[in-house]
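FIELD: query
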Amino acid sequence: MYATAPRLLVSELAKTLVGRIDTIAAEMAELTYENVALYRTLVIGPDDLRASMRHNFLNSLGHLADPHSSSLDLSGPAATGRKRALQNVPLPEILHAYRLGARYLWEQLLHEARELGGDAPEALLETAAHVWEISDAQSTAVTDAYRESLAERMIEIDRRRSALVGELIDGPSSNGDTVWEIARMLDFPFQGAFLVVTAEGITTSDPTLPGLDSRLRALDVGSAWRAQPGSETGVLSCSPQQPLERILDAVRSAATGRVGISPLYDRLDQTDRALRYAQVALESLAPGVAAVRQLDDTPLTELVINNLQTTQRAVNRILGSVLSLPEDDRTTLLATARAWLEARGSAAAAGRALYCHQNTVRYRMNRLEEFLRGPLDDPKIVAELSMALDAVGTFPTLLEHRHVPHRP
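FIELD: result
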């Protein structure tokens, strides 16, 4: 760079300040502690802060002291940005400290220019833009390094939390963490109120539940997730102050595809069982829809989940040929049967619930009886019918298999 007369004069001012760099760094550290309250309460000790100030001021002054210099060494601000990110110092506080430093440097240069006299003050004013360009470059460098370090740290945290969720779901490995340790690292209680959420994305690249984390934080619900191509599985640690329905509403508002939710469970070592409920709830939804379903933790639900094929065979045996009827006909008979059972066998009450005449209910039930394994005045047949209706109500996919078994 061509050295102008003002740059030559400013070079002399900078050289003078380099000679007392230790004093300048110490004064600037003290000024920072006085004006940035957060620095006094964080882990930044006096030696650390003075060293950082010394490095940054020395780079700035070294650049100004060489009138032919065209490049600025930004390794100091970059190192500071990375270090402060690891120390959890908020970026606005760091930039506040850098602004204080830039003002202090200018004041020191101005003091030396006045001491030197002559053309020095005017020369400093003519190069003021260059001095402040140094400050801007350093602020940009510290910001970029801080954000890069923070992003790397967040990725590491996400990977670690994802691995911990994997251990909850798959069970801790022989050399892995215990569930108690996993709870501590996730900042979850071991005993509490938990949900497993498994979500399917419309595409493999799009987020499955965009915006859910912020909604959960607003409800004081902790979460940890394991992401896989096209799906995500999360464990939610629910606040006892929040009604379950509000948490479910938050999930519904974020759903872009099928979402299954487990019943509430109270110990983290039950997560693998809860995941199975969530997976079955998702699989019971029609493909290609944005919908959320939560299964209840009932004996029948557990029975079906543990042995879906056996349940399928039982449903086929109980409902028989009704499964092969046209969909509208089948749906009408099964809906009538549910209403009749809920009405404790009263055709009149079932008719009121279905908005039809009681004789219509009797006709449909007589017709349904033809497909059953016995008459509806047999308590065993009624019990079988109730179980089959509960099963297909909980798992509509059982209706997709319409094999008609041979009657014994």
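FIELD: remark
Strands lie at 191-200, 222-228, 231-237, 258-261, 265-267, 291-294.
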